Amino acid sequence: MASSSSTSPVTLFLVFASTVFFCLVSPARSGDVEALLRLKSLIDPSDSISWRGTDLCSWEGVRECMNGRVSKLVLEYLNLTGSLEEKTLNQLDQLRVLSFKANSLSGSIPDLSGLVNLKSVFLNDNNFSGEFPESLTSLHRLKTIVLAGNRLSGRIPSSLLRLSRLYTLNVEDNLFTGSIPPLNQTSLRYFNVSNNQLSGQIPPTRALKQFDESSFTGNVALCGDQIRSPCGISPAPSAKPTPIPKSKKNKAKLIGIIAGSVAGGVLIFVLLLTLLICCWRRKRRSKTPTEDRKGKGIAEAQGATSAETERGIESKDRGFSWERGEEGAVGTLVFLGTSDSGETVVRYTMEDLLKASAETLGRGTLGSTYKAVMESGFIVTVKRLKNARYPRMEEFKRHVEILGQLRHPNLVPLRAYFQAKEERLLVYDYFPNGSLFTLIHGTRASGSGKPLHWTSCLKIAEDLASALLYIHQNPGLTHGNLKSSNVLLGPDFESCLTDYGLSTLHDPDSAEETSAVSLFYKAPECRDPRKASTQPADVYSFGVLLLELLTGRTPFQDLVQEYGSDISRWVRAVREEETESGEEPTSSGNEASEEKLQALLSIATVCVTIQPENRPVMREVLKMVRDARAEAPFSSNSSEHSPGRWSDTVQSLPREDQVSI
C-alpha cells in the first residue's frame, strides 16, 4: 500500500507531462497528417500516391519538413484528378513550396490565404477554371506564381502589386481578359502572359519594360513598346472604289502600263544597288576581320582604366563580344546541372548573351566579373577568366561540369560555361542583394566596419558551414578562395558561397600576386600560389571569416601571428569598443550573450589552428555551430526567419551592390 502511494506522484507527473507534450506537439503534426490524407482522398482515386506509416516527412512528395511540419509539398506528374479543398490545404500552414504541376486537377483554385508562409506555388498544366485566385495576393512572402496551362478566365488582379517580393509570374496559355496590371516590383525577373485574351496597352512600368515580345505574344488586342505595336493607331477605314467611266478606260490602261514599266525599272535598279553594297561590305570585312569583330561589352569593359573603376564609372549599355575561332564559329554555351521541380530555370542562347549589356562588378586574380542584362531583362553574372589556356580544354570542361552539378541552398549556382580558343566564361545566377563584405563594411574600402550581433554571426556561420560541408563531401573539392566578398546574400538574405572550386583554374606559374586581404584569409600552408588548396585550408579561412563577423575587421594582417593566444581578448576588446553606444542588445540577457560569444570564439579559434591536422573537419564545425544555435533564445520558430536583429542589419544594405572578386 505504501509502495503504491509513493509511486502515485511520479505516475501523475508522467501522465501530466505526456498530456502537455501531446497538447503542444501532436495537434500540429497530426493536423498535417489528417490534412494530407484528406487531400489524397479528394484527388487520388487511382491510389498513385503511397502514403503509409506515421512519419509523414518520409512520405512521397513531402520534400521538406520543418519542426515536424510539412514545408515543401511536390505532387507532380501523378495524374491526380478532382478538386482542391480550401479547408484541407489551409491546414498545412507551414508550407513554403506547393506544387501540383502537370496533373488533371479541375474546378476553381481555392482560397489559400491561410498559407501565410507560402513562397512558391506551381499549379500549371492542369484543368483549373474560374478566376485568378486573388487570395494569393494577400500572402506577403509569396515570390513565385505559376498558373500556366489551365482554363482560368477573368482579369489578372491589380492586387498583385501588394506582393513586394514577386519574382516569377507565369499565367500563359489561359483565358484571361482585360488589361495587364501595372506591376512595378523591382524583384520581378520572370513574367509571361502570352496566349490569353488580354487587351489594351502594356503598362510602361520599369518592371514590365524589361520583358520582350515573347512574354506577351498571342494577345492580339495588346499594344505597347514591348511588342512593337503602338497604341492609339487604328486602321484607316476602307472606301468603296469609284467606278471608272467607260470612256476613260483606255487612257487608264495606258497609264497603268507606263507606271508598271517605271516601277519595274526602279526595282531592278534597287536590287543591283543592294548587290553592290553587299559585295563592298564583304570585301571590307575580309580586309579588317578583327576590326569588324571587335566588341564593346566585356571586351571594352575589360579595357576600362582602374581610375574609372575607382570612380564608379561602369561599362553600361554595351554588348558582349569576343574573338571568334579560326573557322569563324563562336564556341558553344553549355548549360550545366539539372533543376529540381521547385526551381525556375531560364534558357537563353549565345546570341542573347552576345547582345547583353555589361556592367563591371569586380576584378581579381582569376578574371573579371560582370552583371549581364539581356534584352529580355533577364540578368546573370558572368565571370570572364583571364587565362583561357590553363588548364587544358578537356580538363577545364571536366572540372567545370563537376562544379555545375553542385546544388545547395547556400551555393550560388553555376548555370553555364563557354569556351573558345581565347575565351572562357562562367555564367552564374545574379544576386542583387550584395555581399557579406558589404553587409559588414558598407561601402568603406578600408575594411573597417561594425561587428555583427551574435545571432547574425551564428546564422551566417551555419549557412556557410553547411555549404562548405556539401563541397567537401565531393572528394578533393575545395572552395579555395573563401572570403566575405565571395559570400553573396540570397533572396531571403541567406548567405551563399560563390567562386567555389575555381582555385584549380589558376595557373601556379602565373606572375599574378594575391592581394593582401585575400592572402591572410588563406591558411599559412597555402599562401604560396604554387600550393594547391586543401579542405583544412578552407576550415582556416572559415575561422578568419568568423573573426571578421565578430569584429568587423578585414584581415589585412596575419591575425594568428599578430595576436596568437590573445585572439579572444582582441575580439572582446574590439566588440566592447564598437558597442559602447549600446549597439550590442542585452534583451536576451548578458549571460546568454556572453555564452554565445564564447561559443563563436571557441569555434573560430580552433579553426585557425596553425597545424592543419589539428583543425576540425567541416562536419565537426557545422555541429558546433548548430549546437550553439540550438541553445540560443531565438524568438523565431524557423531557420528561414531572421534571428535576433538580422532583419534590422540587412535593412540598411545598399541594393544592386555585388562584390565578387
From TrEMBL:
It is found in: Membrane. Residues 355-635 form the Protein kinase domain. Its main location: membrane. GO terms for molecular function: ATP binding; protein kinase activity. GO terms for cellular component: membrane. The chain crosses the membrane at residues 254-280. It comes from the Eukaryota. InterPro entries: Kinase-like_dom_sf, Leu-rich_rpt, LRR_dom_sf, LRR_N_plant-typ, PRK1-6/SRF4-like, Prot_kinase_dom. Residues 288-318, 574-593, 630-661 are annotated as: Disordered. Residues 288-297, 308-318 have a biased composition (Basic and acidic residues). It is a single-pass membrane protein. Keywords: Leucine-rich repeat, Membrane, Receptor, Repeat, Signal, Transmembrane, Transmembrane helix. Residues 1-30 form the signal peptide. PANTHER family: LEUCINE-RICH REPEAT PROTEIN KINASE FAMILY PROTEIN, LEUCINE-RICH REPEAT RECEPTOR-LIKE PROTEIN KINASE PXC1. This is Protein kinase domain-containing protein. It comes from Eutrema salsugineum (Saltwater cress).
